[in-house]
Design brief:
- The chain has 921 residues and is mainly β.
- It contains twelve helices and 56 strands.
- It has a 48-stranded mixed β-sheet that branches. A six-stranded antiparallel β-sheet has the order 51-52-53-54-55-56, with no helix packed on it. A two-stranded antiparallel ribbon has the order 22-23.
- About 4% of the residues have low confidence.
């Protein structure tokens, strides 16, 4: 009996073991069955859809009933109602413990999300996906007790956007979150992240750790948050834009700080305190104004604004609505080297959805602006006003002053009418006794901007449209109501513009911007076509007469074509043809590259001149051809490079006295004042035909070959000027130039090396003058054949007398007279000199030659009248005024340079003759 029971027990055990093995085998093979996988996958999707109110799509790749583990791939979950959020992960692994389930009756779900990409909209400052995350943490379904126990992220990314405000947040992290009881604990490591608002990146390249512990229903356990991150603030103007964010919040207080590496940007300490159910935040920040300027202009470059902004705020965050108080102070606000304001302050508060603010701005020299701002969030309306309490005088306004209460502006805003602005401004310039009076109104809404007003009793109207930005109309009328500038749209979408600008308007603009007073008349017509990425311009000036400043040339006609690339901020001047009264100027392919703030990053203008008339004051007139290239790069000195050919040139100034002037080679100062002292050059100037130099003392032709470098106002000059023959006019007889040249050297541009040789035959003497040395340190040597002393030679040149008695009168002034004649300016010839010269022009061949009877001068004065009949015949009439002698007559005939016949009737009435012959050995 006992044996049978053992056999039956073994049989039953065998059957049970077989059944277990069969069941295990069946379950093992079922987990690889595609039908079972598909069924279980649908059940998981149904569980998600029903429990979390979402739509899920996925594929069950792997399941293990023994572990148990389920792996889903290509999981897509999105909101069922408004599609406001969605997340996708490459693989989702779910697991739990059978032991925990059998013991507690609850499935402790562990999730591992790999390659998570989540997207969510933001409504009322709350992410739409936040409610979905709360549902996952709280549990899936009451019928099936599934609760999230842990959640691991491997390369997760979350992007959140608020279309109304333009805010966008992107976070990338890896880490783990756990649910401990009803509390939540997370440890995340950020590998990237960014925050954008109004299309401006506040920070990016986020990296670091975040630890948080959020207790639920356990009052004695504190809330703990710790953060230690690094990030980049791109709008900082410093080279190192890295910053560090550190802080903590424990139980009821917290302290956070954001600081740049160099310490110029400090946002903190930010104190959070929770007391009696109220969360209070206090913040102190020190920000550079250059950062705020880049943030407002949405640029990432260095700018010329400097100063410090101090922000102090206090907010009651738990109240509904929250309350906010604070001040913003600006210290030492400067633009470049111009002091804008030493101190400015803005105080603001927000209570019961109403913003109230007051501000004042201290300008550079005791100027003071005051104003108020008020805004109601309930009605979406606000008002504001600003006026100057004291006189405003700032270097940024140059010499313009705004007297007390001469600046006022009021504005109002409401959702229906938009923003309305009323402004009045009177600015005066005491030195020039001029003033500008502006008055008008502006209306701005979401679509359009309309402004109308007056400028010194000249009225204007300006209409703009937004989204996209378009100019609809611009009209400017003078005091008589006559239109001087007009731009209007030719089609409904405002992509085709046409307009005219009269010369008085151009003259005013050029005078205000460049301080150049243009003279003339004409009408400039232009056409503009706007495309999505560029616009094309055409300008035409016909039948115009515009005088170029400081020249005697005029602009008669102008045609220009240009293209503006809006994406790359590039302006291309395809072609500019300017027909002058004398000559043509062409510009092809000029390029202007603009920065984010509209400033010029790069400018290159090639210019081709063809037979253009230019002049420098009344001294130099030239017909010039050549090419020039003007280049300007940011933070670099602009320069002009090229070569000029002087086709025909006339100089009405003594070239030797002209070279002594430092402004002899400089251009007109108003043109150079646009760039101050900083304009470099590399210019080559040559002559095609010799320069004609015609002055009372010098008549010659000159070839020029010069090179100008360095600063154009004070250039470094090298090269040479060679005089081709010519005449140096002395009072009695001229000297003919046989050799003359000037060599310029870089170390002494205004003191060139000069060499001059001039000769002539005067009476029976061959006179030669040699000058060598530098222009400011030279030596003059006079020689004659037959030999004469220098005093006799000078007397011969100045008065026509070689008598030594004449030079004895003023021996120290003899050589100085020669220098004055050679280096004197033609302007030294006064109007009376010119008049006398014209009157006595018929007597130019008659000379009065004074002399003394003896060396001491005590014998009396003797004078002679010398008449040059032609090159060979000469007559002399001489009279002694101290004695009663008869008049002496002489007649000379030069058969050649070496043979001369002379007939004489002396004081004693004796008649004689002479034959003079010269031999050279």
């Amino acid at each position: 009996m006992h044996t049978k029971l053992n056999r039956i027990g073994k049989l039953i055990s065998t059957i049970i073991l077989a059944l277990l093995c069969g069941a295990v085998s069946t379950i093992f093979f079922l987990q690889y069955d595609p039908v079972v996988k598909e069924f279980l996958g649908k059940q998981i999707i149904t569980l998600f859809d029903s429990s979390l109110n979402c739509t899920m799509k996925s594929k069950l790749n792997y399941i293990n009933f023994f572990s148990p583990i389920a792996e889903l791939s290509d999981v897509t979950v999105q909101s069922k109602e408004d599609k406001s959020w969605q997340w996708y992960c490459k693989t989702c692994t779910m697991s739990f413990s059978w032991l925990h389930f059998l013991w507690y009756g609850v499935i402790d779900l562990h999730l591992i999300l790999e390659g998570l990409e989540a997207r969510s909209d933001i409504h009322n400052s709350q992410p739409a996906i936040l409610e979905h995350i709360r549902d996952i943490i709280e549990g899936f379904s009451q019928d099936l007790p599934v609760f999230l126990k842990s959640l691991k992220f491997r390369k997760a990314t979350l992007s959140m956007n608020d279309e109304d405000t333009g805010n966008a947040v992107i976070l990338s992290w890896s880490g783990e979150s756990k649910v401990i009881g009803s509390s939540f604990k997370s440890h995340l490591h950020f590998c990237d992240g960014s925050l954008e608002t109004a299309n401006r990146t506040l920070f990016n390249q986020l990296g670091g750790t975040l630890e948080c512990y959020i207790p639920q229903d356990i009052p004695e356990e504190p809330l703990v948050v710790r953060v230690n991150c690094s990030l980049v603030i791109p709008h900082l103007s410093t080279s190192n834009k890295n910053c560090f964010l550190t802080g903590y919040f424990v139980k009821d207080h917290g302290l956070f700080r954001l600081q740049s590496v160099d310490g110029s940007f400090i946002c903190g300490p930010l104190r959070l305190t929770q007391s009696a159910g109220n969360l209070i935040g206090e913040m102190h920040a020190r920000l550079p104004l250059s950062y705020l300027a880049n943030l407002l202009g949405n640029t990432y470059e260095e700018n010329d604004l400097s100063g410090t902004c101090i922000v102090q705020t206090k907010a009651y965050l738990s109240t509904t609505p929250y309350r906010l108080f604070g001040t913003i102070s600006l210290y030492d606000m400067r633009y470049k080297q111009i002091n804008l304001s030493n101190f400015s302050k803005f105080s603001f508060s927000k209570q019961n959805q109403k913003w109230n603010g007051t501000f004042f701005i201290h300008c550079e020299s005791e100027g003071l602006l005051e104003g108020t701002l008020n805004y109601d969030e309930n009605t979406k309306s606000g008002v504001g006003a600003v006026h100057n309490k004291k006189k405003i005088s700032n270097k940024l306004l140059e010499s313009w002053d705004i007297e007390r209460h001469n600046l006022s502006c009021t504005l109002s805003f409401d959702p229906t009418d938009g923003l309305k602005v009323i402004y009045n401004l009177i600015a005066s310039q005491p030195k020039l006794h001029t003033y500008v009076e502006l008055a008008g109104t502006a209306t701005i809404d979401k679509q359009d901007c309309s402004t109308q007003g007056t400028i010194n009793n000249n009225s204007y109207i300006l209409d703009l449209s937004f989204y996209p930005s378009r100019l609809k109309r611009f009209c400017y009328h003078d005091q008589e109501g006559k239109s001087v500038a007009e731009i209007y749209s030719r089609n409904a979408d405002h992509t085709k513009l046409e307009g005219i600008i009269t010369f008085p308007f151009i003259r005013t603009i050029v005078n205000d911007l460049a301080h150049i007073d243009l003279q003339g008349e004409g009408v400039l017509k232009f056409w503009c076509i706007l495309h999505p990425n560029n616009m094309r311009l055409k300008m035409h000036l016909a039948d115009g007469t515009i005088r170029l400043p400081h020249t005697y040339n005029f602009i008669n006609r102008l045609e220009a074509f240009a293209t503006v690339d809006l994406d790359y901020k590039k302006i291309i001047l395809n072609r500019i043809h300017c027909w002058l009264h004398k000559g043509i100027a062409r510009c092809t392919g000029a390029v202007i590259l603009l920065g984010q703030q509209g400033n010029i990053e790069f400018l290159q203008v090639p210019l081709l001149l063809d037979s253009c008339l230019i002049n420098n004051k009344d001294d130099l007139f030239a017909i010039v051809s050549g090419n020039l290239v003007f280049t300007k790069e940011r933070n670099k000195i602009p320069q002009i490079v090229g070569s000029l050919i002087l086709d025909r040139t006339q100089l009405k100034e003594n070239i030797f006295s002209h070279l002594l002037k430092k402004d002899a080679f400089s251009l007109n100062s108003p043109l150079l004042d646009l760039y101050g002292e900083s304009l470099f050059c590399n210019l080559a100037i040559t002559t095609q035909s010799p320069i004609r130099i015609n002055t009372p003392f010098l008549e010659t032709m000159a070839n020029v070959n010069l090179l100008f470098k360095q600063n154009l106002k004070n250039p470094d000059i090298t090269g040479s000027i060679e005089l081709i023959s010519g005449i140096i006019n002395f009072p009695y007889k001229p000297l003919y130039i046989t050799k003359a040249h000037c060599h310029f050297m870089s170390h002494q541009p205004y003191d060139p090396v000069v060499e001059i040789v001039a000769k002539n035959r005067i009476k029976k003497y061959t006179i030669m003058m040699c000058m060598h040395g530098s222009l400011q340190n030279h030596q003059i040597r006079l020689e004659s054949s037959p030999p004469l002393s220098e005093e006799q030679i000078i007397g011969l040149l100045l008065a026509g007398s070689e008598e030594e008695s004449l030079s004895i009168v003023a021996p120290a002034l003899v050589m100085q007279n020669i220098k004055n004649l050679i280096f004197s300016s033609s302007s030294a010839l006064t109007g009376l000199d010119s008049y006398v010269k014209k009157v006595f022009n018929p007597f130019k061949h008659i000379y009065l030659v004074p002399s003394f009877i003896d060396q001491t001068g005590r014998g009396g004065l003797r004078a002679a009248i010398e008449i040059d009949i032609n090159e060979r015949w000469r007559a002399l009439i001489q009279k002694n005024f101290s004695l009663s002698e008869d008049t002496r007559f002489e007649v000379d005939y030069f058969l050649s340079d070496n043979i001369c016949f002379k007939a004489v009737r002396d004081e004693h009435r004796d008649v004689s003759g002479e034959v003079e012959m010269r031999w050279k050995f």
